[in-house]
Design goal:
Helix 2 packs antiparallel against helix 8 and helix 3 packs across helix 8. The protein is mostly helical.
């Protein structure tokens, strides 16, 4: 899809305006209610849907289909990010009223860093088609690793460790001993130091980059159009803050999510390998965007249903075990 510089600038300007509106509405630190999170999650989903419909009307079915497939994939992978975001928030003991501010700036940092990743990935793929083999193999490996991790952890929370960049920043600037409302920097004994709020924002943003290592190749497996890759990532990330508060309590019930994501990543990895073979002149079938979207949607639906059923069964078993324990204590 040939996108003019004017269209790129207008798109970026539109996204900046949406982010500014989001910031102005939530500028006052407060605890986000489920109702507020639900309304704004719906708003971001509708905006993404309208953008996708616009691509369908003005750029054709292929572009629109690739956007929706990319958006759904990035959104589902972003949900997995929320597990780690919850751990980070707990590790830094972020007050509830400041969490929405952390996520807003953390996601903004992630969006800027992902844009750089996308630009680099598009340039590499345009020059070296064999990179599709590497992306495909990496996604298949990631899918297998995701299954292994899900089985080994048995659904328990993972520990989170600060990355090297974050540790370097903390050593270089120093960190205040407590939160100071929405302030990001302070002067302590004449020295400018970071507040814990700034540190946790950097933690959210830079940690997302690690997730981008599999999500960016995944969406390039669905479309090689940088414009669609960028906009799908942008809409998926910008609604992430509200989604955090909406399904935070539901996260522990999605016990099969990792398995579903592994299937999706493996499927896209195979799609990339087939595409690479096709580019080198080997006659192999290519997976269509329609089939990709159907598989991704189907896997997410099955994963969600089986997760909720398993969580309900586990809850009933826990209640039964608790009742048996009470009866045993009474008999004793």
């Amino acid at each position: 899809m040939d996108i003019s510089l004017t269209t790129w600038l207008l798109t970026v300007l539109g996204l900046v305006v949406l982010i500014a509106i989001d910031f102005l509405i939530g500028r006052k630190p407060h605890e986000v209610s489920v109702r507020e999170a639900g309304v704004w999650t719906a708003v971001w989903v509708v905006l993404a849907g309208l953008f996708g419909v616009g691509l369908l009307l003005f750029a054709g079915g292929k572009a629109g289909g690739e956007f929706f497939a990319g958006y759904v994939t990035e959104k589902s992978l972003s949900v997995d990010n929320l597990f780690v975001f919850i751990v980070i928030m707990a590790k830094f003991a972020v007050p509830l009223r400041l969490q929405q501010r952390v996520l807003l700036f953390g996601v903004l940092i992630a969006l800027v860093l992902r844009a750089a990743f996308i630009a680099a990935g598009a340039a590499v793929l345009a020059s070296f088609s064999w990179v599709f083999f590497l992306f495909g193999a990496f996604l298949i490996y990631t899918a297998w690793k995701l299954i292994q991790e899900a089985r080994s952890h048995g659904g328990q929370d993972e520990e989170w460790e600060e990355n090297r960049l974050l540790k370097t920043v903390e050593r270089r600037f120093g960190v205040a001993d407590k939160y100071h409302d929405t302030k990001l920097f302070l002067r302590v004994n004449g020295k400018r130091v970071l507040t814990p709020l700034m540190v946790v924002m950097l933690a959210i943003g830079t940690t997302d980059v690690m997730f981008a290592l599999d999500s960016i190749p995944a969406i390039f497996g669905l479309t090689q159009d940088p414009y669609i890759v960028f906009t799908a990532n942008a809409f998926a990330l910008m609604g992430l803050r509200q989604l955090y508060f909406l399904i935070g309590g539901l996260m522990k019930k999605l016990v099969h999510l990792s398995y579903g994501l592994s299937v999706i990543l493996g499927f896209i990895g195979v799609k990339l390998v087939l595409h690479a073979l096709h580019e080198t002149g080997v006659h192999v079938p290519e997976i269509s965007t329609t089939l990709s979207l159907s598989v991704i949607g189907g896997v997410l639906l099955v994963t969600t249903v089986t997760s909720l059923v398993a969580a309900r069964r586990s809850g009933r078993d826990a209640e039964a075990a608790e009742r048996r324990g009470d009866e045993d204590r009474v008999d004793a």
